[in-house]
Amino acid sequence: MFSSFSASTARTRGAARLAAATLVSGLVVAGALAVAGPAVADETPQSQGGATATIGGLKTYGAAVIHDDGGDQQVSAGLFEMSVDDGGMLQTYCIDIHNPTQKDAKYQETPWSGTSLNGNADAGKIRWILQNSYPQVNDLAALAQKAGASGLTEQDAAAGTQVAIWRYSDGVDVDAVNPQAEKLADYLQRSARNVSEPRASLTLDPPAVSGHAGEKLGPVTVHTNADSVTVTPPTDVAAGGVKVVDKDGEPVISAADGSRVYFDVPEGAEDGSAALTVQASTTVPVGRAFASETRSQTQILAGSSESTVSASATANWAKQGAIPALSAVKNCAKNGVDITAANQGDEAFTFELMGAEHTIEAGTSRTVTIPLQEDQAYDFTIKGPNGFEKRFKGVLDCETAGSAGGDATQTLSEPSPATAGGTSTGGTDLAETGGSSATPMIAGMAIALVLIGGAVITLLGRKAPTED
Fold first, then answer.
1. Is 25 exposed, middle or buried (0-12, 13-18, 19+ CB in 10 A)?
2. Is the pTM of this model over 0.85?
3. How far is residue 404's CA from residue 17's CA, in Å, rounded to a whole number?
4. Given this model, what pLDDT does residue 174 score?
5. What sign does the dihedral 184-189-192-194 (CA atoms) show?
6. Is beta strand 272-282 parallel, antiparallel or unpaired with respect to 289-292?
């Protein structure tokens, strides 16, 4: 049991950035999980699996001051609390100081490559700080001694840790207001060393497969830090006889890290598609990034209780023709979204995307990067033969600095005092924290909702032309 969480940060992103986002049109591409027969578009954001959580608010925090050309700005600095879907709690720090936090925003465990940590040479130092400071280290007397501080409260420790993280994640000139918290921040910044990115709590690779009816489609490989995962077969197509099996054709109801599973589609099944889901209970590794699809500031994990994590994979099959399998992932290195199209059919799969025609020959795959602007909302719906559709939604958020031309603070949620007290819990890496009654000085402003339009990109399977 634990009593409360903590987190903090008020942030600023220039008004120009919001204005630019307002002017950007979304793109459309679609994706669907279907039973045998025409597909029905799946409207959930694409995900690589792991923990999905809803952000609460700052629970343990102190004050910090950001220094820039526009003057000094006081903000809150500390730990956020997030509640995991289907069970579990997370503690996170912010790695996106100039972006507003939206109350009750949904977050998804995300690789560093899909966040502002991509290309940040100091990203590994942030993970070191997380591993060697509060709440992972909740012996505050020992932490204070290392930092040369005369004493640390939970609020001081959270504020000092957040300030040190901001110096590496955002490159800002920021100091903790409390002298002891500032000593901790300086110690952590000085001592930090690069540590590698942690593995995901749970993913499936690849997230989409395809092939002919009468074959085992796959394999789909399980990657997880859990001891085992439960496998839920596509019950919506159970009448059609589609099963989840191992390489020997035996039904699979549980799997472990490295396990390979297949969709066993009976011969004669009508053209269609289906999905399987895997789920586990585990602690999410410290240092995993969490991104939102609603322009809410990116977070990084500082602690996790035993939490529910999940991932899904889809299969598409047909008797003949092009048989596509589509997946998508944010690629901050290229400022866009990578759409991977594989074709396990017996005809070429040709489609037009962003004004260019692409052909995936039978038995091959290809990745196409869709360039986007920072903060651009996208909604991709890709259509294929036999009623196939695949949809991907999200927001490209790869930067921490605002666009030039505005310094207004846009904070959509304010922290409220948390309940004090508690000691660390046993058996998890989630330290129990107290609360603070400090009132953050944050300026709020409303953000208008933007309706995003877009063009539908239709992908058609057809025989390859004589000249590509």
1. middle
2. no
3. 8
4. 98
5. positive
6. unpaired
